[in-house]
Amino acid sequence: MENCVFCKIIAGEIPSSKVYEDEDMLVFRDINPQAKVHCLCVPKSHFATLAEMDEAQAELVKKCMIKIPEIASSLGLDGGYRLIVNQGKDAGQTVHHLHIHILGGQDMGEKML
Ligand code: 5GP
Ligand code: ZN
Description:
Layout: H1 5-10, E1 18-21, E2 25-29, E3 37-43, H2 55-74, E4 81-84, E5 100-104
This protein binds guanosine-5'-monophosphate and zinc ion.
């Protein structure tokens, strides 16, 4: 998708600190980390929110969810981690390509869930 920063990262047009990649997803470190470990798991198909997701894209999200525990383990998140998927304006979604935040490496507290 034109002008989508995550599509550009997937295409290698914008550099990123890659953590994991396969044919379905790319995982890289967030440029503005909100926890000691903060990565983004991005399916390799452009859609903004779950409301726009088709069946093939849902399969990619499923594959992300299956792979995330393995990625979290490789990141040393043995004490647990938090996943966040912002949807739209009120959630503060700024990049309109669905992504799963992986946050951890510290006690995440209880303020937001
Ligand atoms: P959202 O608020 O849309 O859920 O999260 C978007 C995330 O993408 C933010 O945490 C932001 O720091 C991250 N981000 C935006 N642009 C870039 C970029 O060019 N590279 C990386 N690594 N992260 C980005
Ligand atoms: Zn995109």
